[in-house]
Here is the input.
Amino acid sequence: MNASERQTMEASAVTTQPEGTFPTGTGPEIAGPSPRHRTVGVTVGTGEGAVTVGGGAPIVVQSMTNTDTADIDGTVAQVAQLARAGSELVRITVDRDEAAAAVPKIRERLDRIGVHVPLVGDFHYIGHKLLSDHPACAEALAKYRINPGNVGFKEKKDVQFSTIIEQAIRYGKTVRIGANWGSLDEALLTHLMDENAKLPRPIDARAVMREAMVQSALTSAERAVELGLPKDRIILSAKVSAVQDLIAVYREVARRSDYAIHLGLTEAGMGSKGLVAASAAIGVLLQEGIGDTIRYSLTPEPGGDRTVEVKASQELLQTMGFRTFVPLVAACPGCGRTTSTTFQELARDIQNWIVTSMPEWKKRYPGVEGLNVAVMGCIVNGPGESKHADIGISLPGTGETPTAPVFIDGKKAMTLRGATLAKDFETVVIEYIERRFGSGARSAAE
Ligand code: SF4
Here is the structure.
């Protein structure tokens, strides 16, 4: 089954949120995102790794390498790592001849090791030249990412933009037209600022910048269509580094068009700041039905793990109920009722065990990624929260009897105690997974 077929299966498995509310007096409004903004579906790549972005397909996770693309070994290793972590598209920098020359070799090496994730080439300033001079690169990439703010300047802009679009048409590739706050089309911005200044009541300069972002993306897309690139080969993005501006810009892009949309907060930053800012911005837009593919632009720690951005995208999509990737472990934050670290250790060990077991479980237990596990610290919320999970354990808090009730499918199933409690709980979890997702359960359902 290729990636596109997996997406189709996933889309049909997603429970449709009923619209509207219960009749007055019978219950609260049903929680859920707004219906997805309708966009034209874009297939990126061919064969096993192909994915569909937009057109109602599940929201796609993507990432970007930070290796020098001319370093073939390093780039192959990082693309493989990102793809194995779950990135469905991987972008690589194509900034000079050596990088463009490396791209077909990277594609070939990845295919040889069974990593078929589509590669996206990131071009700035000289994309037209690199794509023309390196046809094998143009062919090996599944998508070209260009920025209308730096594709060319003055009279050269249209020629260079047209050259890139012609290459995309020739090789049957997708193009992401990605406007960016940091490299906004100066000519367009100046024009809009001048027009605004003539108004009896000029609008705020920041609002003009937002409008310039929207127009930069939309007019470039329209130009690409005029040049012959079909709409089902165009994806738009308009990235800004401030959360409220980003939300405003994407709302407007969605309101004015039906191009497939790539969401991301540019320069989100490091650590918790980057995660929180990107999650807030992307989360609000997804909730409004906007966004077909997402990327977290996180700054890794020096030598840090690049796959964090993939995990962040997956966790956002899963916690918001759009897709499922890995069983979720709900754990309470702990408080003065948990003076020992037992429950923190158990929550961590269970989470790590699940993550490391997933590659094997995915093959043996289809659907296991939808499992919910709860690890709670004491009797206050423990039994209640554990009952909401598929399988939950409520550990003893300070002063409580040293026993841990386990709840399965909402009912108390047993009580664990003693030094082997963590191992015993793992056994209970794996038995549950086998019963519910194993081959026996599948044959019984057939
Ligand atoms: S479940 Fe118990 S230990 Fe956990 S935060 Fe609530 S009161 Fe504290």
